[in-house]
Write a structure and sequence with these properties.
The chain is mostly helical. The protein has a single domain, classed as Protein of unknown function DUF3243 (Cytochrome Bc1 Complex, Chain D, domain 2), CATH 1.10.760.20. 83% of the residues lie in helices and 0% in strands. The chain has six helices and no strands. The longest helix has 19 residues.
């Protein structure tokens, strides 16, 4: 199963309370993303695979969740106006932010 499919499955299996907890603040979102990136790195995933997973999360959030703070609103707006390549670059930047959270 590909990284993208695993991310998709996890998103679909996450209950509403957990989503609310993760998205309540940008700090919590960064911590969650940092934990997921750390797990992926321990499994041997490289930055490209991690970015593809982050793209899946970004697509889901943009289409299905309302921003709960200014940072999430900005990310959603950037995601919506970006083309596929720009979204991919933004996903890489989110992975790097998550990696710094873990340092």
């Amino acid at each position: 199963m590909s990284v993208e499919n695993k991310v998709e499955r996890e998103i679909q299996q996450t209950d509403e309370q957990k989503k609310d907890d993760i998205l309540q603040s940008f700090g919590r979102f960064k911590d969650y993303l940092g934990d997921q990136v750390s797990k992926g790195e321990k499994l041997g995933l490289g930055e490209e695979s991690l970015a593809k997973g982050a793209e899946k999360v970004g697509d889901y959030l943009s289409k299905n969740e309302q921003p709960r703070n200014a940072e999430e609103k900005l990310l959603q707006e950037l995601w919506k106006v970006g083309d596929k390549d720009q979204r991919h670059h933004l996903a890489h930047m989110l992975v790097r932010i998550a990696q710094q959270t873990n340092d």
